[in-house]
Amino acid sequence: MKFSALFAFSLLFLGLACQPKEEAKGERLVFASNRDGNWEIYLYGLQDRRLHNLSAYPDIDKSPAVSPDGRRVVFVSSREGQDDLYTLELDGSDLTRLTQNLAWERDPVWSPDGRQLVFVSDQEGQDDLYLLGVGSRISQRLTQDPAWESDPAWSPDGKRLALVARQGQQQELQLLQIETGQRQPLTASPVLRTPAWSPNGQTLAYVALVKGHSEICLWDLKTGKQKVLTHHQAWVSDPSFSPDGKRVAFVSNRDGNAEIYLIQTDGQSEKRITENPAQEASPVWVP
C-alpha cells in the first residue's frame, strides 16, 4: 500500500515537473514568417523559445497585431482572393473574417479598449484610414486626404493615431486627433515607416532615413527631438515596444536575411532572437 501511494505520488510529481512553464508576462512575440514555405502568423516565447504556427493556412497571412487583453490576433490574409482582415485566438482557434469586399486591407491595429480596429484600405481608390467595430463588423472612413496614408498606430490613451502620410517622394510622420481630425506633423523624410507608441504614450519608435540608411528612431513627444536607436548600414523595419517600455523589437537584414532583434531603449544590449534562413516580419508583443 505504501509502495503504491509512493509510486502514485512520484508519477504526479514527475508529471508536474515535466509540464511546460507558462511564459512570463511580456515575454512573447507574435510575428509573420515564411519559414514554412508561405507567410504565416507565429507565436514565439522569448524564454522557452517555443514557436507555434497560429494561422497554418497555405496562403499569405501577414501584419499581425495583438489585442490589448492579449487574447486575440488580427491579421491580413489573402486566403479568399484579396487581402481581408481576420482574427483568431492566441492558441490558433476561432478564426473570424472581419472584412469582405473587393478592396485591399492592410496595417490593422487595435484600439486600447479592444472594441475597434483602424486599418488602411483602398476602397475609394487610394489608401485611407478606416475604423471597424470588432463586434459589429461595420466600418467607416476616417480620413479623406490627398496624401496616401499607411502604418497607423493607436495611442495608449485612445485619442490619437500616429501615421505616415505620403505625397510624391516625401513622407511625413503625423499625429491625428481622432475626434476632431486635426493633424500635427512631427518629422519628414524620404523614408518613414511603421510608427509604434511606447506604453506611456510619450515616445514613438519608427523607421527613418539617417545618413543614407534606414534606422530605428525614437521621437520624444515632449521635447520634439529625435534619437537614433540603431546604427547599422542595413535595412530595418517594424519597431514595437515591449509592454514595460524598456525594449524595442524590430526586423533587420544585417545578417543576410530579415530576422528579429531586440534592443533596449537606451541603445544597449542589442541581440538577435530569431535565426532562420527564411524571412521574418512585423513583430508585436503580447501584453
UniProtKB/TrEMBL annotation:
Family the UniProt entry places it in: Belongs to the TolB family.
Native species: bacterium (Candidatus Blackallbacteria) CG17_big_fil_post_rev_8_21_14_2_50_48_46
Protein name: DUF5050 domain-containing protein
PROSITE patterns in alphabetical order: PROKAR_LIPOPROTEIN
Pfam families per record: PD40 (PF07676), Tricorn_2nd (PF26550)
Family matches, as InterPro entries: 6-blade_b-propeller_TolB-like, WD40
PANTHER family with a match to the protein in the record: PROTEIN TOLB (PTHR36842:SF1), PROTEIN TOLB HOMOLOG (PTHR36842)
